[in-house]
Design brief:
There is one protein chain. With 67 residues, the chain is of the alpha+beta class. It contains one helix and three strands, in the order βαββ. The protein has a three-stranded antiparallel β-sheet, with helices on one face. The chain is elongated, with a radius of gyration of 14 Å. It starts with a strand and ends with a strand.
Length: 67
């Protein structure tokens, strides 16, 4: 039987939402073992002078706890 835990992180990118998600999962995987999935809870953009300067996502990262 496995037990999983969920943690929330925020990640950003200047390229797009997909890149922000990939960066967030990659970074979370450095600290958390057994990352098995992620849920995008929220998306947001930051703007300056009418142009998007950053794409930001709030992720719920799921990881399986070691036995």
């Amino acid at each position: 039987m496995s037990v999983a835990r969920v943690t929330e992180i925020i990640s950003s990118s200047t390229k797009g939402f997909d890149d922000a998600v990939e960066k967030g999962i990659k970074r979370a995987s450095k600290t958390l073992n057994n990352v098995s999935g992620a849920w995008v809870q929220d998306q947001k953009v930051e703007c300056k002078n009418g142009k998007i300067t950053a794409y930001r996502v709030t992720l719920k990262i799921t990881f399986v706890l070691d036995d």
